[in-house]
Amino acid sequence: MKISIKKNNIDDVIKWVEDKTKTLDDKKPIWNILEKITQDNVADEFISNKNDWKPISQSYRQEKIEQGWDERVGIRTGGLLWASTEGADVTTTNDRLEWAVNLNHVNSEGEKVGDYAFRFNEIRQQFQYSKNYLKKLYKQAINKWIKGVIKD
Predict the structure, then answer these.
(1) d(Cα 85, Cα 102) in Å, to the nearest integer?
(2) Cα–Cα distance, 100 to 3 (Å, whole number)
(3) What percent of the chain has pLDDT over 90?
(4) Residues 138, 34: contact at Cβ < 8 Å?
(5) What is the pLDDT of residues 33-80, one digit of tens each?
(6) Measured between alpha carbons, how far is 56 from 141 in angstroms, rounded to an integer?
(7) What is the DSSP letter of 112?
(8) Helix, strand, coil shares, percent, the chain, to 5
(9) Which sign, positive or negative, has the C-alpha torsion 50, 16, 36, 1?
(10) How many angstroms separate the CA atoms of 5 and 92, rounded?
(11) Residue 22: pLDDT band by 50, 70, 90 thresholds?
(12) What mean pLDDT, rounded, does the chain reach?
């Protein structure tokens, strides 16, 4: 239940953004950009069901509606959504950005998100859409860099 972006995944991309980072040792501008992109994509996984998660049962959907909860998959109290986006455990070093569900967050019902997150992830894997989106983004960035280096 985490995304790990390693230095070797972006070294080629860094070559075409050197003018923005000024040095290969300063990855912070890249991590800052990728943090926002990752947060937006993870939110989209919940809000638009970008992972094509299995639907909840009709009876559970009805129960959620009657209780005033959000009926979308993965969003009941919003605790898991928050712990996966705004409240995610984000670690950055010079060599990596790591994005993980904040398993210690307590939702509005007093439940620890980690307890629910593992059960949820067994049925509906998180971060699949975001991982694929980031891979696509890397390929686009590398293609842009290649086109900039190899002039016809």
Answers:
(1) 9
(2) 6
(3) 30
(4) no
(5) 888 889 999 999 999 888 899 899 999 999 999 999 999 998 888 899
(6) 37
(7) B
(8) 55, 10, 35
(9) positive
(10) 10
(11) low
(12) 82
- Would you list the domain boundaries of the chain? 2-149
pTM (2 decimals)? 0.73
Residue 29 C-alpha from the chain's centroid: 18
Neighbours of 14 (CB within 10 A): 18
- pLDDT value at 110 more than 80: yes
Grouping H, G, I as helix, E, B as strand and the rest as coil, residue 43 is: helix
Name the phi and psi angles at 36, rounded to 5.
Answer: -65, -45
**Lookup result for tokens 């307890």:** 115
Q: Residue 90: beta bridge partners? A: 99
The residue with tokens 């390693």 is 6
